[in-house]
Design a protein that fits this description.
With about 400 residues, this protein is α/β, with parallel strands linked by helices. The protein has seven helices and 26 strands. The strands form seven sheets. Strands 7-4-6-5-9-8 form a six-stranded mixed β-sheet, with no helix packed on it. It has a six-stranded mixed β-sheet with strand order 16-13-17-21-20-18, sandwiched between helices. A five-stranded mixed β-barrel has the order 22-24-23-25-26. The chain is elongated. The N terminus is likely disordered.
């Protein structure tokens, strides 16, 4: 794997993603699970409907199912059909039944008249509107036809999908094995929240962000905590993580000139590239293969760690978990309400707040503090302003690309 850690080599964001995705292989193992345990899982087998949905012609309204007759607007009421019941007797011209929403349409029915448009006196119903044939009848297979492919391989299941599959009577699903991701941070200066700070120490914030983000993406997470800056501790952490996880993510220890043991250990046990990415924030980055897992090394600065995770690691995790490779992003166009300073050379992900104006167009304001250690910029922002590597300063009122991050 190429080591791009030299003074002149800056790898573009696009090339970095392409290098990663061309290296990893999507997971192949799969398992069968219950529908009720399948939220956010990725399908390993396409799902085909064995029934029509609706399964039979049914009423879209509470009202009266009529057998049309052209000579009169009065119909004889011969029964009632509720949802879950079936009216066996075919309707003859001039007859109707009281019918509820979702109830099967009796044979001979030409239309369903809303109850608000009919008047019932005894066993006779007068229709108070012009009758439109097939009105308010939902046909069998109108939504899904028997034999139709409903969801394809690689689809990540949503709550609505689960309801859809339940409507087909599907209870067991074949899904890909869930990814397990091990996370740790390195640095003797790092302190767990709740512990007293020593002189020169800081509270560690990257793991809470990474772990919660991974859990939100429905991956299993192994938290290995904060690893001390000793060769033995770092090597033990990597070996343990490599045996237990599909992916390892660390933060810290990948910057140029770092005097720690991370690079030495990784070169001993795996094939790792230490890269300089043409992005801001987040230039230092590491990626590669250990004996049993893939490794992503993020910068230590909190904003840099978050941005590299979102822009470089998340696409890889999705692809590795057997989801189709994304070809498009969620970029939108907006008008900036602030001037933005930028030097050409790196793709800049400016933290910003986007809103929709009275005419329905996006406007966006860059937050005033953009430092890689300013975590409040990520907390307050709802989007990135994505400025291409070759762009320079941006004037107020210019069109820019934004990428929503919340």
């Amino acid at each position: 794997m190429n080591d791009c850690f030299n003074a002149s080599a800056l790898l573009s964001v696009e090339d970095a993603i392409e290098n990663i995705l061309s290296t990893i292989k999507p997971i192949a193992q799969h398992e069968q699970i219950s529908l009720f345990n399948s939220l956010d899982r990725v399908l390993a087998k396409e799902l085909v409907s064995n029934i029509n949905v609706p399964i039979h012609d049914n009423s879209a309204m509470d009202g009266y199912a009529i057998c049309y007759q052209s000579s009169a607007n009065s119909y004889q009421l011969i029964g009632t059909v509720l949802a879950g019941e079936y009216f066996e007797q075919p309707l003859r011209p001039g007859e109707c039944v009281r019918i509820m929403t979702g109830a099967p349409i009796p044979k001979g029915c030409d239309a369903v008249i809303m109850q608000e448009n009919a008047t019932k006196v005894g066993n006779h119903v007068t229709i108070n509107q012009k009758i439109k044939m097939a009105d308010n009848i939902r046909r069998a297979g109108e939504d899904i036809t028997k034999g139709e492919t409903v969801l394809t391989i690689g689809h990540k299941l949503t709550p609505v999908d689960l309801g859809l599959l339940a409507s087909l009577g599907i209870e067991q699903l074949t899904v890909y094995k869930k990814l397990t991701v091990a996370v740790f941070s390195t640095g003797d200066e790092l302190t767990l929240p709740g512990q007293p700070l020593k002189a020169g120490a800081i509270y560690e914030s990257n793991r809470p962000v990474l772990i919660s983000s991974l859990q939100k993406l429905a991956f299993d997470v192994i938290d290995l905590g904060i690893i001390k800056d000793t060769k033995t501790a770092i090597k033990d952490a990597f070996l343990k993580a490599d045996q237990a996880a599909d992916v390892i993510i660390s933060s810290g220890g990948v910057s140029v000139g770092d005097a720690d043991y991370t690079k030495e250990v990784l070169n001993d046990i795996g094939e790792i590239g230490f890269w300089k990415i043409a992005m801001k924030p987040g230039k230092p980055f590491a990626f590669g293969k250990l004996p049993n897992s893939y490794f992503f090394g993020l910068p230590g600065n909190p904003v840099s760690a978050m941005v590299t995770f979102m822009q470089l690691v998340c696409p890889a995790l999705n692809y590795l978990s057997a989801q189709p490779r994304a070809e498009q992003t969620n970029k939108l166009t907006a008008i900036t309400t602030t001037a933005i300073k930028k030097r050409p050379g790196r793709t800049d992900f400016q933290r910003a707040i986007a809103t929709i104006d009275n005419e329905g167009f996006y406007t966006v304001s860059a937050l005033p503090y953009q430092g890689s250690g300013v975590l409040t910029s990520m907390s307050k922002a709802n989007c990135f302003i994505v400025l291409p590597a070759d762009s320079a300063n941006v004037a107020e009122g210019s069109r820019v690309e934004i990428e929503m991050c919340k």
